[in-house]
TrEMBL record:
Gene3D superfamilies: N-(1-d-carboxylethyl)-l-norvaline Dehydrogenase, domain 2, NAD(P)-binding Rossmann-like Domain
InterPro entries recorded: 6-PGluconate_DH-like_C_sf (IPR008927), 6PGD_dom2 (IPR013328), Mannitol_DH (IPR000669), Mannitol_DH/Oxidoreductase (IPR050988), Mannitol_DH_C (IPR013118), Mannitol_DH_N (IPR013131), NAD(P)-bd_dom_sf (IPR036291)
Species per Swiss-Prot/TrEMBL record: Kineococcus glutinatus
Keyword Chloroplast in record: no
Lineage: Bacteria, Bacillati, Actinomycetota, Actinomycetes, Kineosporiales
Record protein name field: Mannitol dehydrogenase family protein
Record keywords: Oxidoreductase
Amino acid sequence: MRRLSPAALADLPAGTGPLLPPQDTGVGIVHLGIGAFHRAHQAVLTEEAMAAAGDASWGICGVTQRSTAVLDQLGPQGGLYSVLVRSAGGTDVRVRGPVRELLCARDDPAAVPARLADPRVRVVTLTVTEKGYRHDPATRRLRTDDEEVRADAAGRPPRTVVGQLARGLQARCAGDAGPVAVLCCDNLPANGEVLAGLVADFCDLLPAAEGERLRSWIAANATFPSSMVDRIVPATTDTDRAEAARLLGVEDHGAVVTEPFRQWVVEDSFAGGRPAWEHVPGVVLTGDVEPYEAMKLRMLNGAHSAIAYLGGLAGFAHVADAVADDDLAGFVRRFWAEEVVPTLDVPGGFDVTAYQHDLLERFANPALRHRTAQIAMDGSQKLPQRLLATARDRLAAGGQPRLTALAIAGWARYVTAGTAEDGTPLAVDDPLAAELARAGGGAGGGRAATEALLGVRAVFGDELPADPGFRALVLEAASALERGGVRTALKEALAG
Ligand SMILES: NC(=O)c1ccc[n+]([C@@H]2O[C@H](COP(=O)([O-])OP(=O)(O)OC[C@H]3O[C@@H](n4cnc5c(N)ncnc54)[C@H](O)[C@@H]3O)[C@@H](O)[C@H]2O)c1
Ligand SMILES: O=P(O)(O)OC[C@@H](O)[C@@H](O)[C@H](O)[C@H](O)CO
């Protein structure tokens, strides 16, 4: 079958082509970490903004960080790829064309700061996963003892994300390239503020005068808006690519799959201008993203992680199957209503009851096939904002966050047990895997392993594990998991 390319656009089924002629689109955005999510979320919304405003200057230069996979997929296709939007009712497909250039940071590290220094680039976006920031999840500070970070600060062409940003901003300063906004689109709370702090930490590693010059340039010329991003985008499978080919009549190696829902709440603070996202359904431009971020991270992502660990241990490979289980669905409902919602500062006019109902429906989407193992990945980087923040706030208010504690104990068991309850091996894919194995490995997933993991400071910090109430709830849940597995632990926690 013929491959998707600019030449193949004329033969696509009616209504499935890009909204703008790709060849007329100029690059105004550099995106670090061009994975599946960026292609199904920010890239789509930006293409729609360009089409709505008749401004084709916001095309994207996508940077892959560690492999050439996306370059190999999209390069021969002239940057084109399709987005399959799946619901119980069927699949909609459209080819998208906002990605105009591709770079591989691993193979050509010097090219990234150079591309960031182009005066036509006025926005830098990022989706590099939580671990890509090389920060300590508990303190949210740059790990300045990280060898790669130190090597970047010593002056090699940068290989870390924060190094790329700092060197790129430095190159903008040197070339008088003008103001720019750096927009984090990863699932981290206060993500703009945190990223600005990480770049400042990097400045501290530079020779004093150089660090000071960069800090002053950033203060005058760069903004770091925060944003809350929401659209479920599972990793693409061969079955998905086969469906894209069937629907389009051409092979698409870069296809991505998602749900109809999309939301992007963006702090409207762009030093160098921005695409006209205000025209795009699903985008909210606001002065304060924080309430939306906390709500999404604690509700959606908190429940996702709970489902990934407890559902994964119970043998559910996909989210939709896990929430079809009455015990797990009941757990999620009560986790939200009794433990998460009371910790939230719900944005004015927002219907949090309807939100819970809609979230469960999104999780239950039978067409998405979102793997629990994908969500379980990198738990050490996710736990603080998804589960520990809720536990901390409930304890401070005198509550007993039993269900949150069970999800945390589920994580500890998942990363130390080795196998799910049906004997299926559980892979631990986590940047702290070695430390987690050292701390709790030999203990075989039981209460002792959980107790040992509470001592991992990068995840739990100092205060929470020292709180007797927190320890008791998590260890009680760990004992229940050890005694009777997920089913027993769920019943006990729900009865408690
Ligand atoms: N997939 C979703 O449903 C979804 C939804 C909301 C937000 N997000 C955010 O987007 C991120 C990426 O998701 P995705 O689905 O695109 O994943 P993906 O695996 O398709 O892409 C991940 C990208 O991050 C880069 N990356 C991974 N590890 C890195 C590291 N250690 N250092 C630097 N770069 C690294 C990769 O090179 C790749 O470009 C998530 O971690 C999350 O923060 C995803
Ligand atoms: O992408 P991650 O690895 O940060 O988290 C996995 C999922 O919880 C996440 O991707 C959600 O699907 C997403 O945040 C929905 O908007």
